[in-house]
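hey can u check if this looks right to u? its 217 residues, i copy pasted from the old doc so theres a chance i mangled smth
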Amino acid sequence: MSDIFDFKKKYRDLYLPPRNPAIIDVPEIVCIAVSGKGDPNTSEAYKNALEVLYGFSYAIKMSKLSGNTPDGYFDFVVPPLEGFWSLDDGGFDYDGLKITDKKKFVWTSFLRQPAFVTQDVFEQARETLLKKKHSVDFTSASLLTFTEGLCVQIMHTGPYDTEAADIRLMDAFAVENGCVPDFSEERRHHEIYIGDPRKTAPEKLRTVIRHPVRKSA
């Protein structure tokens, strides 16, 4: 296992921050993403998105066994699931505090990928998946590269529905440090799911909450 690259261990500031708020400048990342709408607890589209994302990630991870190893390949631990969240009324400034109806969620779920994952590697993985699973819509995924930039973040411990107190703490910290919210269509409420809700008690779940900010004038 020591030779397997682990994003959480390499980039602890991004994936395992302390429970106190912090300002961070998030660098460019490569990811595979699927977008959709609806309550993640009941939406079939959300369930399918996760199947697609993990399908791609494990196909790329196991490509070393196919005889078509990508240039620059190294084995890696599939990183935690991440998601950008907003509302279907155009509310890109959704901050995790205003939702009353989860059916209004607009989400982009994604899994980070190693830098060797190019468009060609991505398409090769799609071909592999289409041969194995004809019932899953692997055309819904895309390969993205983006730089999140300046953000404030915190590690929330507990159920997702109890995030509000930590979000208020995080946002107050940003203001105290000369920053203001900077939400937009490209910069949204961001969550990184360190705990698996299928295997972890709700009170022990860990979620990185991250909000885009900019320096105040």
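Residues 44-61 form the longest helix (18 residues).
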